Amino acid sequence: MREHLLCAVAGAFLCTSTGTPVSVAMAAPASPPSDTGCADLLPSGPAIKRSIDPMMLARVRDIGSVGDQAAGPGPLAISPDGSMLAFALRRADPVTNRYCTGLILLPLRRGARPVIIDAGGDVIPAEADYLGMADYPMGRQVSVEPKWAPDGRSIAFLKRRDGTTQIWLAFADGRAARALTRSANDVGQPFWSADGRSVIYRVRPGLVAAGQMVEEEGRGGYRYDSRIFAAGSAKPFPRADIPFVWMASSISESRARPIDGTERDLAVGPPVGVPAQAALWAVQGNRLAWSEAVQPHALQPQLRIRIRLGDREARCASPACSGDLEGMWWRSDGSLVFLRSEGVGDGESTFYLWKPGSGEPHVIRKDDTLFVGCQMLAQNLLCLRETPTRPRQIVRLDTQTGRIVTVFDPNPEFANAVHGRVERLTWSDPRGGSTFGYLVLPPHHRPGDRLPLVVVQYSARGFQRGGVGDEVPIFPLAQAGFAVLNFQRPRDRSALIRNNSVDEYMREEMGNWKDRRDVLASLEAGVNLLIDRGIVDRARVGLSGLSDGAETTQFALIHSKLFAAASISTCCKDPVAFTALAGLAQWAAQERWGLRPYSDSNRQQWLDASLALNADRIKTPILLQLADWEFRLALQTISEFQRRDRPIEVRLFPSEHHIKDQPAHRLALYDRNIAWFSKWLHPNP
């Protein structure tokens, strides 16, 4: 699975675009979750100076989905009058192995405190159609995106209880929240109708009947075909061709009705005048801005900005207006603010301000922090922001000066956290690529002392937490005496831009594993940089990863002698287990991509990627911490390594998928990774 493809705001009230303030009574606090460990869903009290241990990291309060980097509507919702902000807050509790969740209302006036207006519910599992299978589970969580009613009196949001996800309504005046939909199926994100009388959403009613047919089929035995992911279960998935239906539920009657495409598009689609294929857009009166693809048919095209002012349409010709655009917003004075990731490895966030017709865009702010879900409020942006040392905070960005003010910090305990030096590094490799990473050192590291190193993968922007999948705790590892390098996987940008489809790109990649070789070259260059600087002991380097990071780790163990220990969370690409257990749909895709069944004629292709075929010569200790949904893919490697008495430890986590999300499991993953690397790399020899 290749994921890399794929304040103080001044005043208590601000006006809507019509200039009419909408007065809304402040909500009374809802009862906080009563479960043990959930009383502190909202932070209270002063931050205490302490080191970042695994439990502190596992209990970080989150807004939105961990690892998301998308701009756009996202997790923050500003009330129509601009006076309040709504968002969902979530905190893991490893002791009870559940999440504490709540919908939060934050008045946007100086000194105001957030209140919980609805509490409870389960996290919402993200499912997607995959290789013809409907609602394939990945282990990610859906980001709850609250939506204000046009009159500013209620908020529609997703909530999961008793095994289904429904739309609920919360109220700004403190009334108890209530369920709006009662569908037999999970429902999608809510959208308000223009008149505010209904909430519009997507549902897939045919899944119920399809599930019943699968159960009935089981009475006579399932037919083994492309509906089955054999590594995870013998039970078939429903086919992905089951259609979605758009519905509207009346808020006064809680009565649902199907709607047509016109009504759907008015609530959900791009505004009139914005092309349907636009990835980003901003609308203000007769001002439109949107993104268009520079290479329309490319798999991952660069974007550029187009605008329409009344009857006049134009394209921004400045180089700053094209590239990796992440968001755009109109200011009330007719200037356009846009966010672009740029620099080495696209690791920097740069905000630009452009007044169409009056010259080039100019930089408002540029730094290496991560911004998510920004929303314009008057002349300011409200955003979620992560820094390398701080989890997400809600901040106000002045779009004139670039100055940032914190509006709400869900995790104030990190303000006084004890940690060592955090340094952003950039480097080039012998194959012509470049990327960046973050080096985190122990708090009491002395210059000249060479340390063992643990490499974490494969997305380094934002808070230095636990890598993709959040399993390898960066700051606690540093506290245990390790240097830690969070490595940003370099993108194969030219191939992604040039290729027109995933199949075309993957055929090019699997022909000789070019991308894997490029990533390994970049990874080794980063490690060697630290060795040459006298920070890292060459004999004590460990490597970790999940998904694409796990594939990089496996490739490195086969093709490099640099790594003395490894920990991976997904595995493996072996000719017997992978061919048999990936399932017919997955294997058909692999064959389209040029990976053929093992034979003498393509032996080298498999030797370059399979741990099992290289078990005779790999002596690196390997820890496998695997989801029970995927562990069978690793059986060939496990068998070959155990048969040769190679140092390998295997842990299986029940009821988990590609991304593990149970709080107790996350804490166990943290602790075991620290123990594993301590055992083999000896941080205090």
Describe it for me?
This protein is α+β, with helices and mostly antiparallel strands. Helix content is 19%, strand content 32%. It contains 13 helices and 37 strands. The strands form 8 sheets. Strands 17, 18, 19, 20, 21, 22, 23 and 24 form an 8-stranded antiparallel beta sheet that branches. An 8-stranded mixed beta sheet has the order 30-31-33-32-34-35-36-37, sandwiched between helices. Strands 2, 3, 4, 5 and 6 form a 5-stranded antiparallel beta sheet that branches. Helix 7 (514-532) crosses helix 8. The two termini are 38 Å apart.
Q: Name the average pLDDT.
A: 89
Count up the helices: 13
Helix content: 10-25%
Bin the strand percentage.
25-35%
Number of domains: 3
Give the termini distance in whole angstroms.
38 Å
Poorly predicted parts: 1-29
What's the total count of β strands? 37
Instruction: From the alpha carbons, calculate the radius of gyration and give it in angstroms.
Output: 26 Å
CATH architecture of the largest domain: 3-Layer(aba) Sandwich
Instruction: Determine the CATH topology of the largest domain.
Output: Rossmann fold
